[in-house]
Amino acid sequence: MQLSPKLAALVEALRCLPGIGPKSAQRIAFHxxxxxRDGGAQLGNCLSQAMQSIGHCESCRTFSETxxxxxxxxxxxxxSGLLCVVESPTDxxxxxxxxxxTGLYFVLMGHLSPLDGIGPQEIxxxxxQTKLQQGNINEVILATNPTVEGEATAHYIAxxxxxxxxxxxxxxxxxxxxxxxxxxxxxTLMHAFSGRKxx
Amino acid sequence: MQLSPKLAALVEALRCLPGIGPKSAQRIAFHxxxxxRDGGAQLGNCLSQAMQSIGHCESCRTFSETxxxxxxxxxxxxxSGLLCVVESPTDxxxxxxxxxxTGLYFVLMGHLSPLDGIGPQEIxxxxxQTKLQQGNINEVILATNPTVEGEATAHYIAxxxxxxxxxxxxxxxxxxxxxxxxxxxxxTLMHAFSGRKxx
Lengths: 199, 199
Prior knowledge:
Two copies of one chain form a homodimer. Chain A is α/β, with parallel strands linked by helices. Helices cover 48% and strands 11% of the residues of chain A. At the A-B interface, α1, α2, α3, β2 and α6 of A face α1, α2, α3, β2 and α6 of B.
């Protein structure tokens, strides 16, 4: 038995979801048809609308439906003089959830990876440079991931900042709060020791 | 930071997928926006179309875009005089993949479960009865799942068939091919012994 054409198309389309193979796609398609048609139709609408109308903020490159996102438009944040550089919009969410940071963001949408053809241009460092040259930013906080690529990207941007006379800082590496010393990797422990503070 | 309205709507809508919680929904939404907008838009289209236009075959109750599905329309299958009763459209797929069965199907879309308010009417046994009364079916093969509810449903339908003078049979229970005797449960082993065949 062949699946009916629209059902087959749905199963095939579901495979664009991360981690969904042919069997899961089929299971999801049948689940929606059998038990949640309204939810499925709603999801179809939301997907079509989101893919069509969500673009990038012209100022910080995060996802936004408007040319400039809410955070970039906030005068209070503009006045802070702080700019936090992160790799992806989910990082912005994570930082915002702490409720402690009140500055602006710049979202690279990736990290430097010359082997994959991702250079400074691809992660928007030209946009960042223009932004820094406008002179409203006093400090750039580099919050890229603590991976090899993230570190390299942070160092590259730090150099850029130094050339433009803007202060650059890197978020601290060390023990995660609530972590256990014997379960943490050596690299993190090393960072925790070298970054120790007087009490 | 609030997610932008359409992004928030998409994350919420994604939670209708089975096994997807708030964190996974967010991860999927960002994945689609960052890396696979075409796939996402395509999925949106397919979902909308499928939810709208996939209904049930009037003859066998499986999913179908046409009033009568391909299998029910096949003259060869109608001539076989065989009707296989299964619980869900995925069971039809599984049986069709063996390529050995050439009869018709009847899909219950569930099983008898009086406590959940699912009686004979809800699983379409009135439709099945009308079908059997037309006299084209010589044998009903009961291929409901070997669970308590599946067995109960099979016995109920077997009685229905007997009353109508149609032969009813149940698929065999026993060792799965390639299985190991010491890993199989006692109930299955018991069935395998009681269903033994002369060699």
